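Q&A log
Question type: sequence-to-structure
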Amino acid sequence: MPQRSPEFLFDMYRRSGDGNLIPPRFHKIEYELCEVTSGRISARIGTLPVEAEAGDILFVPKGSVFSLSANGAASVRGVIFDSHLVEADMVRFDTEVLYMFSVRAENNNAVFPKDSPESAGLHRALEELSGEYEAKDVCFRLPLRAWLLLLMTDLLRYFCGSKNEQDRMVYHNVLRLRPVIGYIAEHLPEKMRIEDFAGMIGVSADYFTKMFKESIGKTPIDYVNALRVNRSMQLLIGSELAVSEISDQLGFSAAAYYNKIFKQYVGLNPTAYRKEATEQSAAASSQARDL
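Response status: OK
Response body:
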């Protein structure tokens, strides 16, 4: 991947061909938006498998492992940008909006079909960003920042909901779940119980499970497992830790159980996933050197 300027973390890319176009990777602080410009692709965003075609746009939250392959000849273009470019402009009361955005974006469908209401605005932003970035005219960083802010406004409004009653209830419940979401993030390797989560917000276990699923988009167990699997994917592609060490580090009760859960979400066991990711990354590096 091209090196991005440390004072302005922004990059655009184009990929085309058949087979693997983007090997598994993740960004610690950056968001990524990827548009399919021709053909059809299969991708994975965290634990979410995705199918998309020309005109569709994919959003990749920071921290989510992302990979993409073409189904036949296909091409994509994308933008990667530092989340701080946007978050720095959010005033204090908007921190709950950012929290809502991060939770909803990580756990709900992040694909915008070409005929969706949001797609037109996102497509125009990508067009303008591409033009400014490739031209690099005087003060080009200013319009880049402006279009990124407009792009993120569309994403924030989509994931955080509107002012209708149903969206307001979801918003309220996600905020109510904030102590639980924070606890899970800080204690991911530890054993967790629905009853303990319910006690944190003063409701019954049954009501908690229902509210969590309706608000987050996943059951509590699915949410915890998906976080653990995504984190293990990061470690498999970004570290040399043994599979057994990763299993222990993330609180899986046994290596066999880790293998079972990982395969349930990813379709491969951890060892096979690491091997495939390594081969894809090596092939991508070789192709880049050949260009």
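Response note: The domain at 10-160 is CATH 2.60.120.10 (Jelly Rolls).
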